């Protein structure tokens, strides 16, 4: 278990990084814009959109769901009407996008009810999206590693690789 000094250092480093990130975002977007809040969008979601098999409406709806997902354990529950108004599209278009996202196994709708028994907005479980992104992220990481290795090989074509201990050597050319 880390001692208090290690915890303080980790906390200080996290605050320092967060402060630096915050300043960068303010420089990019402006203080007033950032003061209203922001949503973190994984690059893998944007870059993997085609692999997820979703179109622009589905992506836009997902982005608005992410804007309402504040804590990992509390799934978002905005109304279709709210999303439709923000996107400038019909609630029917939002509903079709939700069906497509659910069919693509990117979200699960869960009905919610008032204490009086009446229906309210659905909750949207995004854990299927998180799971679907994992192999996309793994492929992207592998491609990045292979690209770096190919670049190193191209930059140093005459350099021989060292054999590892399991390959029976540890010097160049052995």
How is this structure best described in words?
The chain has 174 residues and is mainly alpha-helical. It has a domain at 25-130: Winged helix-like DNA-binding domain superfamily/Winged helix DNA-binding domain (Arc Repressor Mutant, subunit A), CATH 1.10.10. It is 59% helix and 7% strand. It is built from eight helices and two strands; from the N terminus they run H-H-H-H-H-H-H-E-E-H. The chain has helices at 4-29, 31-35, 43-47, 49-52, 56-67, 80-87, 91-103, 127-155, and strands at 108-113, 119-125. Strands 1-2 form a two-stranded antiparallel sheet. A hairpin with a 5-residue loop joins strand 1 and strand 2. Helix 5 (56-67) crosses helix 7 (91-103) and helix 6 packs across helix 7 (91-103). It is elongated, with a radius of gyration of 23 Å. Mean pLDDT is 84; it is low at 1-14.
Write the layout of secondary structure elements.
Layout: H1 4-29, H2 31-35, H3 43-47, H4 49-52, H5 56-67, H6 80-87, H7 91-103, E1 108-113, E2 119-125, H8 127-155
Antiparallel strand pairs: 1-2
Helix pairs in contact: 5-7, 6-7
Number of helices: 8
User: How are the strands of the largest sheet arranged?
Assistant: 1-2
Name of the CATH homologous superfamily of the domain at 25-130: Winged helix-like DNA-binding domain superfamily/Winged helix DNA-binding domain
Output the radius of gyration.
23 Å
- Report the β-strand fraction as a percent range: 5-15%
Mean pLDDT: 84
Looking at the overall shape, the CATH architecture of the domain at 25-130 is Orthogonal Bundle
Shape: elongated
